[in-house]
């Protein structure tokens, strides 16, 4: 027993040396990170022009979706600003009760740019921002409104939002133009997530705009936040059911749930439409039947807003990035020329405000999350 | 198991219940550090950040305590059911149901705090107890295995709650974009132990409960009945113990504890409501905590503290060392594995125990021990 214990002790003693020897960089920077007195903090800031922290919503930073796009944006920004790898970091939230403490950890560690992702963290991000006016906050998917939903910008917080209803409307119009059975469908993540609801409303209205007689069957995942974006089986089964109802164009918005639907629909010969990223690229399984995607470049958006901090134009308040249509790729030839012209016209009218893509349905609750047209 | 332990001398008891877990933690840390190195980070930075995140200053201590509280209570629930030969996988769902009942009473009832707080806690307890009594009844009446039925009741609980706080749900705060309920009235919130911090009195309740459960199990007639049912159901019947009644009762107490864990989370943590993603995972961690704590109420306190500290410290570990939070899960899993299969640890460190009976630290008893 003694012998093996000593062996282990030696191993434990040698291990750190090995580790530090292999990573000279981190051993240099270890000292300032570990001491928290004020003098070393000054050094730290000198080393890092900015320290960027990212707090994920309940989820992972490699979810191939919302969180990943935001975190990649942070990494990109750090590269553009020439920050070392100790100047930016992340915390993955595991319990929504921890939002506050996770954000505060970055404040306590002297981070001066903090990116939080997901609308659920909106209120707490604003509260902490008001207590720390010297720290910049970027809330992805967080509208800067007070408790009564009136615009209430803070100078050190930018809410990075997207007009998902634009993208939804455009893919809806495309679906309405391409359907032969006059039945189109959609598979969506959680209904209570505003961007998802905006995609859905936009999609519905887009189909009806070009093709008032078409039937639209939209299905939301009924589950809670921890499954509604990751349930590809549900997506797949729903897609089968929709196709048996005559759907020949299927739109999917909702992470892996939607991806499951798109792959199944594609295998059964329907056209599909993707979301957030150009899914021709991110979901190669559907590259031969994907007409287009409703694009929302979160990564680019995060990089852009962090850029405004470094060039001094950071203004606070809401930023609404448009969401647009991805290229048609392989199916470019299948889409009639006049349809393409019409889509361009619609896009212009959307951006100019002539078309409101997000008119709430009659009798629906206010949570269709439409952005008021200015 | 305790009877077997009691036959050993105190030093050997310490060996099994203290030395083995400590060596398990030690070994798990070493194995995990290899994983951390492979993932390109420095385990020294990671572990020092982990320790600092858990104990570095008052606020970190408070976070550790806050994470520990629901794990103690949930762990007690699991341990108690375990002693009765029942494997209550349904703690997660019972926590949810308890939370929701808490929200209903805490947001609607108008009463002074001295009445409102106990009633709100009681709502959580009762909801959890009733929810857990259902699988208990199904087992007592029809012999349906509680592992299966509690897994199912978890699903049902999650879905009911998602619906109730979802779009147009009855508990949805109407003026919110977020799926959440209204906040509890001021009179239903747990008082703080230190003002201007997050530290509420939940931990006191948890520690008192640990003692209460200990006394219940080992110093009362009901405790003897519960343990007899757990050890040998036929012997229990032969002794004239009403086994079916006991099964329902054990599940109800276990679920009541789980429901209380949910109630304390809702009543103690700002913004004092139930949100999507709230309280996720405590139920399943409670299972691990109970096993690691040797299904002993006092052991549960220590293992909950260990898990709580790791959960709280994980924040700083991610921030400083960029080690994903999953590393903590790996670490916890390894510790659990070494404790459950403690022959591995005893093999590595050549710990010998003469009394062969002590080898039967039978943690998987719940699977077959209670079945008919």
Explained architecture:
In chain A, strands 2-1-3-4-5-11 form a six-stranded parallel sheet, sandwiched between helices. In chain A, strands 7-6-8-9-10-12 form a six-stranded mixed sheet, with helices on both faces. Chain A has a domain at 164-295 and 324-352: Rossmann fold, CATH 3.40.50. The N and C termini of chain A lie far apart (76 Å). Chain A is 45% helix and 17% strand. Chain A is of the alpha/beta class. Chain B has a domain at 66-292. Chain B has 372 residues and is mainly α. Chain B is globular. Residues 356-362 and 364-372 of chain B have low confidence and may be disordered. In chain B, α2 (10-38) runs antiparallel to α14 (326-340), α4 (58-83) packs across α13 (297-321) and α6 packs antiparallel against α11. Chain B is built from 16 helices and no strands. The interface between A and B is large, with 59 and 48 residues.
Tell me, what's the shape of chain A?
elongated
Range of strand content of chain A: 15-25%
Query: How large is the count of helical segments of chain B?
Result: 16
**Poorly predicted runs of chain B:** 356-362, 364-372
Low-confidence stretches of chain A: 9-45, 361-367
Assess the beta-strand content of chain B as a share of residues. under 5%
- Quick check: average pLDDT of chain B? 88
Q: Spell the H/E element sequence of chain A.
A: HHHEHEHEHEEHEHEHEHEHEHEEH
Q: What is the fourth-level CATH superfamily of the domain at 164-295 and 324-352 in chain A?
A: Response regulator
Rg of chain B = 21 Å
User: How far apart are the first and last residues' alpha carbons of chain A, in Å?
Assistant: 76 Å
**Percent range of helical residues of chain B:** over 70%
Strands of chain B, total number: 0
Largest sheet of chain B, described in full?
Answer: none
What is the level-2 CATH architecture name of the domain at 164-295 and 324-352 in chain A?
3-Layer(aba) Sandwich
